[in-house]
Amino acid sequence: MSRWWRLAGGLSMNMALGTLYAWSVFVVPLEGRFGWKRADTSMVFTIAVIVFALSFVVAGRIQDKYGPRLCSLLGGILVSLGFYLCSFTESLGHLYLCFGVIGGLGNGFGYATPIPVMAKWFPDRRGLAIGLAVGGYGAGSAIFGPLAQLKLIPAYGLPATFQILGGIFFVMTMAGAALLRNPPAGYRPEGWSPAAAQSAAAARQFKPGEMLRTPTFYLMWAGYALGCSAGLMVISQLVPFAKSVGIAAASLTTMTLVVGALGNASGRILSGWMSDRLGRINVLRAMIGICVVAMPALYAAGSNVVLLYAAVFVVYWCYGTQLSVNGVAAADFWGTQNAGSNYGILFTAWGVAGILGPRIGGVLYDRYHNYQAAFYAAAALAAVALLCELGARRPAAGPDGGA
After folding, report:
1. 50 by DSSP, 3-state: which?
2. Domain with 231 in it: what CATH number?
3. d(C-alpha 87, C-alpha 401), whole Å
4. What is this structure's pTM?
5. 35 belongs to a structural domain
6. Residue 399 in domain
7. With contact defined as beta carbons under 8 Å apart, do 95 and 44 qualify?
8. Interatomic CA distance for residues 99 and 265, integer angstroms
9. What total number of domains does the chain contain?
10. Is the backbone of residue 302 left (phi > 0), alpha (psi -120 to 50) or beta?
């Protein structure tokens, strides 16, 4: 079977998992139904992100040892079950368990497979292939967010919407899991020969402990955590933010979500492609630098729909870049043999971002009743992330594992 079918499997898996980014669609209906506060509903997303990141570490090790089949099956079953069980929500605790814990576990196990699998099947186009696979994660919210907000919730209600989405996701993830396989040992695409420098780097396969002894890991981890905090703050609050600045029509708030999802997917795909040509760290530096400016610009856009959409697209692009290019960089810098484990450890930075970003949005909104402080705080975090990326260098391939 062609390696492009493997890519299609990763895309199908990630499109279903990526509905996590459409969480803001459910915020207002849940608050209206149960009278919960913004900080309460923000915690659902935070729990999901933390569980996602922690389970990704375990799933990465399982994937490296046993291959992608087990992890992808578990991921698909859990994320589908989590959505289905959300339909019976009557308390915050139930929602935290079903969407946060079960859904987070499903995302961790499902997302752990496409990145290392694509890194092995596409050594010649690693940035583009991983960008396409994880781009599905960004695109999923562009499809299922509007479907839920404009069609399913108005027609069938919130509980039935969770059940319908759970069924759709089960079919998509099982199809994806069936296609995800590792290539044979020593696989190379037909007609491709790695450059000498790339061959030398690939010969060094860092184990997790060796990776943790490189200074580059800590700079990239900090940059990843702080850079993603800004994006996750917006993602967790996007629909409520749009409504807070006077964009109340459902069609307009939904379009805001679609524009953001398209920016997220575009950043993952096109920045991954750009990183094949310009270098991983260079692309990360450029996009995080743009994010520093884009965050306050998004708040300043206010109710100007055109400017708001443009700023949302840019912020999501910068965020999506980090989710694809960091995955590619981990495979390039520390090798593909332990890519699941190594990227799983680096990915814990995203879990920390899942605490900082949504809490910044929810808590500061509850305190000031607007999002100004949240957007400026996120811009400051992105600025520190840029400093970290400026200090990062590709680790040496020598036996000491130094940078």
Report:
1. helix
2. 1.20.1250.20
3. 49
4. 0.79
5. yes
6. no
7. yes
8. 23
9. 1
10. left
